[in-house]
Structures are given as structure tokens and as C-alpha cells.
């Protein structure tokens, strides 16, 4: 057994730092010493999922031990972790939709916590089994995960930078490249410039889009947006219902017809239809932020021939996309080091959440010594 400290959500809206015990890996399991864990709004939400769990779904670290069935990893390997764990055998995985695996997906299975992991008892808290967020639980000094959740790091990269790839970076980049398939020279507008929005922006830059228009109510976030590739910015008014006035500005910046692509990255239900107002006829609107509430849409916004897509996690194929992202980072095209605005010890998780809500960070990361 491995004893370590972890952030434990109580299921009722709070957390505490507590000791946990982790069994040695069996079968396709891998014991990871976590070196860094990204901080996301989903981690904040996980405090209220009505059951205790080990928090954290973004992470990177070093392989410590492997189970008997593990073939691609060995102790000492640096890895980045992926929360949408594919089985590579079900219908969706065979179709290439590894991000919505029918056996392991924490989201498509309707289970936002365990990620379909069968060996729940392998992690214990106060002598009782405890689930790990999305089958990972990265806000802990160690985590027991499946081999399919790991992708080896093949380039020189700080663990803090590697840790953020497996959620916001992949979601933003993949929404542009895999889902929308943005073409060079086409116009892109991004609604919301938080961590995901910034990665949509740099995904659009890497894809060769122009112009790239960033929209936000926070001028500091718009300054960040230019660093990652925004060519133009629109400071929105919080009173602008559905961003209707911002949409008029976008049209004036795109030959009067609207952008070719618009990406919603605010997670605000009232703005769920806003990207449709930003795109031209036969344009593509992309709902990136994971809005799950019921929203109302004026069908006139679809006129004419507009597409509205709702991809999950940038249609991630971890063994294909993560090496690509590593290569783009090594070339200097994918900005990750700059995105890690601040790092925190696990004991300062409360401050990390406060800074996230205040919009101070492009991305905050927990680091472990």
C-alpha cells in the first residue's frame, strides 16, 4: 500500500486535505507519482457531487509501478494523464470516438466521478473505498490509473505544463482542429477567454485562421487573448443580452456577413445560442464549454444553413492528439509554460480556487514536491 495526502471532496460543497491509501497496481493499472495537477471549474463543481471522492482530473507525473498487463510503460516514465479513458474495443472507440468510450467514459456513462473504473477498492479513505474523479484523482501525491489513461511525455516539458494538456488545452485545440476543422484564412470568433477559450484561440492560430476575434467582459482576459493569437478583441457589456451588440461588431469586422466559425467558451447558459448570431450563413457554431442546462434558441438564428455542434473534449484521441500537442509545444507553436500563471502547493487549493473564480490566472496548477 502507498500512503499519501489528497484533496477529498465531501460531496456537500467543501473539501479537506486527508491521508489516503492506494493498493499496488494490478492488471492494466499504473501507479503514478503526481508531480502537477491542473485546476479547473469542474474540480470546484466536484465538491458537490453528493459523494466523497479524490479530486482532480488534470495531471502529469512519473510511473512508479505497473500491473502485469501493462506493456507501453515502465517505472520512471514521465506521463500526462487523460480523463476520457478509451477501451479501444467498444463501438464508439472503433468508430474513432475514443472520447465517448461506451465502457469507460465518465461522462457518457452518466457517472462524473468513477470513470467506469472497476477496482474502486484500490483507493481507500478512512478504511473505506473512495472514488477518484474521472478515474484519476490527480489532486493527490499518488494516483492509481489505467494504462489507457497515460500518454508518455516524449519532449522536454515541465510537469506543470504537461498537467494542463489533458482537459482545457485538448478541449480548446481539439474543438478547432478535430471538431470544427477550421481552414486556413477563415475567420474565427471566440466567446469567453478563460483557459478553454485561450486554447481555442491558439488552436485557431495554429490552424491558420484569420482574423481571430476574442470577446470577453474582462479587459485583462482580452490582453491575454492577444498573447495566444487573437488578432482583434471586443470588450462586451454584461448588459448585452445574448451578446447581440457584440454580434453586430463581429459582423462589421467580417465583411458584414459574420464569422466563418464561432466558439462559445463561457459556460453561461444565456449565451448558449450566441455563437449562432456571430456566424455567417452556412457558418459553424461550436458549443465548447459544456453547457448542460435547458436553453431557448430562436430558430431564426439558424438561417440559413448554419451548423451548431457540441463536441466533447475536442474529440480527443489521446494516443494521437497528445503526441501532436507535445510536438507543437516543442516547436514553440503551442504555448503552455506561459499559460501556467501561478502554481500552488496542495495546501493552498483554496487560494487556487479563489484566483480561478477571480479570473486572475490563465491556468493555475497544483505542484507536488
Short description, anyone?
With 369 residues, this protein is of the alpha/beta class. Helices cover 25% and strands 26% of the residues. It folds into two domains: 2-164 and 336-367, Quinone Oxidoreductase, Chain A, domain 1, CATH 3.90.180.10; 171-312, NAD(P)-binding Rossmann-like Domain (Rossmann fold, 3-Layer(aba) Sandwich), CATH 3.40.50.
How does this model look, in words?
The protein is of the alpha/beta class and 369 residues long. It folds into two domains: 2-164 and 336-367, Alpha-Beta Complex (Quinone Oxidoreductase, Chain A, domain 1), CATH 3.90.180.10; 171-312, 3-Layer(aba) Sandwich (Rossmann fold), CATH 3.40.50. 25% of the residues lie in helices and 26% in strands. The chain has ten helices and 19 strands. It has helices at 41-45, 91-94, 159-163, 165-180, 195-207, 219-228, 244-253, 274-278, 318-331, 349-357; strands spanning 2-9, 15-22, 29-38, 53-54, 60-66, 78-81, 123-125, 128-129, 131-132, 142-146, 150-152, 188-191, 212-216, 232-235, 259-264, 279-287, 307-309, 340-344, 363-367. The strands form three sheets. Strands 3, 5, 6, 10, 11, 18 and 19 form a seven-stranded mixed beta sheet that branches. The model is unreliable at 110-119 (pLDDT under 50).
Features:
2 domains, alpha/beta, globular, Quinone Oxidoreductase, Chain A, domain 1, 10 helices, single chain, Rossmann fold, six-stranded mixed β-sheet
Amino acid at each position: 500500500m502507498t500512503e499519501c495526502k489528497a484533496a477529498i471532496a465531501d460531496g456537500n460543497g467543501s473539501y479537506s486535505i486527508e491521508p489516503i491509501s492506494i493498493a499496488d497496481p494490478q492488471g492494466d493499472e499504473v501507479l503514478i507519482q503526481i508531480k502537477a495537477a491542473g485546476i479547473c471549474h469542474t474540480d470546484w463543481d466536484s465538491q458537490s457531487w453528493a459523494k466523497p471522492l479524490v479530486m482532480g482530473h488534470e495531471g502529469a507525473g512519473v510511473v512508479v509501478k505497473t500491473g502485469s498487463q501493462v506493456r507501453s510503460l515502465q517505472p520512471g516514465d514521465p506521463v500526462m494523464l487523460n480523463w476520457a479513458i478509451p477501451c479501444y474495443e467498444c463501438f464508439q472507440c472503433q468508430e474513432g470516438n475514443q472520447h465517448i468510450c461506451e465502457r469507460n467514459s465518465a461522462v457518457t456513462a452518466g457517472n462524473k466521478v468513477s470513470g467506469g473504473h472497476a477496482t474502486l477498492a484500490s483507493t481507500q479513505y478512512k478504511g473505506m473505498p473512495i472514488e477518484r474523479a474521472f478515474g484519476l484523482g490527480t489532486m493527490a501525491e499518488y494516483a492509481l490509473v489505467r494504462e489507457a489513461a497515460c500518454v508518455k511525455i516524449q519532449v522536454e516539458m515541465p510537469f506543470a505544463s504537461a498537467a494542463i494538456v489533458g482537459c482545457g488545452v485538448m478541449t480548446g485545440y481539439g474543438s478547432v482542429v478535430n471538431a470544427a476543422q477550421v481552414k486556413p484564412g477563415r475567420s474565427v470568433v471566440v466567446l469567453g477567454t478563460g483557459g478553454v477559450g485561450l486554447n481555442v484561440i491558439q488552436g485557431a492560430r495554429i490552424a491558420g485562421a484569420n482574423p481571430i476575434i476574442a470577446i470577453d467582459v474582462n479587459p485583462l482576459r482580452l490582453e491575454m487573448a492577444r498573447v495566444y493569437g487573437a488578432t482583434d478583441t471586443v470588450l462586451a457589456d454584461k448588459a448585452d443580452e445574448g451578446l447581440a451588440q457584440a454580434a453586430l461588431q463581429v459582423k462589421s469586422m467580417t465583411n458584414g456577413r459574420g464569422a466563418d466559425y464561432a466558439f462559445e467558451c463561457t459556460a453561461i447558459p444565456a449565451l448558449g445560442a450566441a455563437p449562432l448570431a456571430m456566424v455567417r450563413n452556412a457558418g459553424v457554431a461550436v458549443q465548447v464549454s459544456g453547457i448542460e442546462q435547458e436553453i431557448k434558441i430562436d430558430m431564426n438564428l439558424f438561417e440559413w444553413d448554419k451548423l451548431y455542434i457540441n463536441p466533447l473534449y475536442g474529440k480527443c484521441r489521446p494516443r494521437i492528439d497528445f503526441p501532436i500537442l507535445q510536438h507543437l509545444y516543442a516547436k514553440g507553436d503551442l504555448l503552455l509554460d506561459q499559460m501556467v500563471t501561478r502554481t500552488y502547493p496542495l495546501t493552498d487549493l483554496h487560494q487556487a480556487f479563489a484566483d480561478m473564480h477571480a479570473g486572475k490566472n490563465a491556468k493555475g496548477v497544483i505542484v507536488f514536491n
